[in-house]
Design brief:
Layout (H helix, E strand, L loop, with lengths): L11 H4 L6 H6 L2 H9 L9 H14 L3 H14 L4 H13 L3 H14 L3 H17 L1
Helix pairs in contact: 3-4, 4-5, 4-6, 5-6, 6-7, 7-8
Length: about 130
């Protein structure tokens, strides 16, 4: 389905979804953050769900959006309301031009995230998408 968008360029609001909030940073293990900073493809975590999250982050940073979506989807299957996984998966969907799926993920965050900053980021992204369509 076409939305009249050839490519979706990342604006600062959408790009901010990649930057974890203070709460998100403290929730993730130190090893995962280190792996992200070093660009390690195989995360240094024991928990398979956290490993999938870290692999999704690595794929997103490397521009492998389909793989990122797959990994974030695994996380969401285990932890349905993982707002950060929904935010990151939405960003990957945007990069592939799948606006409907991105909007669905942003709406999920707005409805269910206990983190006010995540809800605000998702709301801003939805507003930006509405303006661009």
């Amino acid at each position: 389905m076409s939305f009249g968008i050839e490519t979706i360029s990342l604006n600062p609001i959408i790009t901010s979804l990649l930057v974890p909030t203070k709460a998100e940073s403290s929730d993730r293990p130190v090893q995962e953050r280190r792996a992200q900073l070093l660009g390690v493809r195989e995360p240094l975590v024991d928990d398979p769900v956290q490993g999938c999250f870290a692999r999704g982050n690595a794929a997103l940073v490397l521009g492998d959006y389909e793989t990122a979506i797959d990994y974030y989807s695994v996380v969401i299957n285990f932890v349905a309301n993982d707002s950060l996984a929904h935010l990151r998966r939405a960003l990957a969907y945007l990069q592939l031009g799948d606006v409907n799926e991105a909007v669905a993920d942003f709406q999920q965050v707005v409805r269910h995230s206990p983190d006010a900053d995540q809800r605000a980021r998702a709301e801003l992204a939805l507003q930006e998408l509405a303006r661009s369509l």
